[in-house]
C-alpha cells in the first residue's frame, strides 16, 4: 500500500537536520551600513543659518560654499546580529581635525535636518578622536540619546529624537531601534567644524553596505 502524499511530506520533514544556529554567532556576525560623506549632501549653506541661532552656534571661521569644499569621508556602522552592540568606523579627508567641533549620527531622510541620536563627543572631543583622520568605537544602548526637550528656537514637525515609527511618540533608545532606523534609510553622519556649525561640514546618509 502506498503512503499518501500528504502524509509522506511531514514524515520527510522530520528526517531533515536541525537548522538552529549557535546563539554565540549573534555577537560576532554583523549587518553593515555605510555612508560616503560629502558637503553636497548638506541641505543648505552656512550663510543660510537662522538668525536666531547664529550667536549660540558661534561659528569662528569664514564658511566655504559646499561645491568648493574638499572635505570627504567614509563611515560605517556594523550592528551585531543580536543587536547588543554596534561598531562605528570612520575615515575623513580634507578636514583639519583641530577645526572639528561636533560629530553626530542624526535621524532624518536626505535633505532634512534631524535630531541627534548618537553624539561622538560625549566622552572625548571628536577633534581628539579624529586626530589622525580615523576613528573606531563601540556603541551600546547607553550611547543612544533620548532627547527630552528641544531648543526653544527649533520646532520640528515630528516627535523629537527619531520616533521608532511615524504616528508613535515612543523614541528610539536601543541599538535595535538604531538598526531599524538605518534599515529605513533615515540615519546620517554629520561632521561640524568651526566654519560650518549649523548644517555641517559634510554629511553622509547611511545605506546597506554592498559586498564587492
From TrEMBL:
Short name of one Pfam family: CHRD
Keywords from the UniProt entry: Signal
Protein name per Swiss-Prot or TrEMBL: CHRD domain-containing protein
UniProt-annotated stretches for the region Disordered: 40-73
Keyword Signal in annotation: yes
InterPro entries per UniProt: CHRD
Signal peptide: 1-20
Domain CHRD: start-end pairs: 65-206
Domain of life where this protein originates: Bacteria
Amino acid at each position: 500500500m502506498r503512503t499518501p502524499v500528504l502524509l509522506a511530506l511531514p514524515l520527510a520533514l522530520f528526517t531533515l537536520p536541525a537548522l538552529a544556529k549557535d546563539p554565540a554567532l549573534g555577537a560576532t556576525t554583523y549587518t553593515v551600513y555605510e555612508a560616503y560623506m560629502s558637503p553636497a549632501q548638506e541641505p543648505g549653506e552656512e550663510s543660510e543659518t537662522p538668525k536666531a541661532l547664529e550667536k549660540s552656534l558661534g561659528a569662528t571661521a569664514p564658511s566655504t560654499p559646499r561645491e568648493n569644499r574638499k572635505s570627504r569621508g567614509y563611515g560605517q556602522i556594523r550592528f551585531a546580529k543580536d543587536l547588543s552592540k554596534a561598531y562605528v568606523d570612520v575615515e575623513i579627508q580634507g578636514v583639519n581635525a583641530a577645526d572639528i567641533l561636533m560629530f553626530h549620527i542624526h535621524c532624518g531622510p536626505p535633505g532634512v535636518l534631524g535630531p541627534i541620536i548618537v553624539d561622538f563627543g560625549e566622552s572625548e572631543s571628536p577633534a581628539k578622536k579624529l586626530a589622525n583622520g580615523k576613528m573606531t568605537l563601540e556603541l551600546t544602548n547607553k550611547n543612544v540619546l533620548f532627547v527630552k526637550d528641544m531648543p526653544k528656537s527649533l520646532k520640528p514637525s515630528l516627535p523629537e529624537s527619531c520616533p521608532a515609527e511615524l504616528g508613535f511618540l515612543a523614541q528610539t533608545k536601543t541599538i535595535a531601534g538604531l538598526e531599524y532606523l538605518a534599515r529605513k534609510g533615515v540615519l546620517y553622519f554629520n561632521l561640524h567644524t568651526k566654519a560650518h556649525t549649523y548644517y555641517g561640514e559634510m554629511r553622509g546618509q547611511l545605506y546597506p553596505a554592498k559586498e564587492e
